[in-house]
Design a protein that fits this description.
With 192 residues, this protein is of the alpha+beta class. The chain contains 7 helices and 9 strands, in the order ββαββαβαββαβααβα.
């Protein structure tokens, strides 16, 4: 045996196993392992309406939508476009974004999909290249200790990317469950 070498020692690990599927939980503390094994193949139910839900889901899609709607600020479409003139709207029924309500209604009616009572607003954000992150990553990935690009080259690169972002950066939209746009019957029929 080498001096300073250690030998393997046999140990026993306590774990818990799901009785249904046989998955063993033994990485965490005993109480957590037991809870995870007990919940492993447990059938979940919606806490609002009681229907069965997929694993770990405690709200069905319908009740989740109702909660989101109840917590959202309600606006008319007219108020929404006044307050957010360039934002899109999002429709859950099609999982699509629309630049105008007329476009959404036409799409739904053409495809024989009922127009919902409300649609969601969106948050707008800018998609651009992060030049400083790109430079930092390149320096870190160079494999060279304390490597840095030439300061003049960095300034030129940052100026170039700023111009590129101004020309080619784009606006993007993400559904916002903070704003529910309540549609009138006329708007739902495509007449307003």
């Amino acid at each position: 045996m080498k001096v300073g070498a250690f030998m393997a020692k046999e140990i026993q690990i306590k774990g818990f196993m799901c009785e249904k599927c046989g998955k063993v939980y033994s990485c965490l503390d005993s109480a957590t392992n037991e809870r995870m094994a007990n919940n492993c193949c447990m059938q979940y139910h919606c806490q609002d309406c009681g229907v069965e839900t997929p694993k770990y889901q405690t709200l069905c899609d319908n009740c989740d939508e109702i909660r989101k709607f109840n917590n959202a600020k309600k606006m008319s479409y007219i108020d929404y476009i006044r307050q957010f003139p360039n934002n899109m709207i999002y429709c859950m029924e099609t999982d699509e974004y629309y630049s105008e309500l007329e476009e959404l209604v036409d799409d739904l009616l053409y495809n024989n999909i009922p127009v919902p009572d409300f649609v969601w607003g969106t948050d707008k954000y800018r998609v651009e290249v992060d030049a400083e992150y790109a430079l930092s990553s390149a320096e870190d990935d160079s494999g060279l200790e304390d490597f840095q690009f030439d300061p003049q080259g960095i300034r030129e690169f940052l100026d170039f990317v700023a111009k590129w972002n101004k020309k080619y950066g784009t606006d993007a939209y993400m559904v916002s469950f903070k704003i529910a746009i309540v549609l009138t019957e006329e708007e739902k029929r495509g007449t307003n």
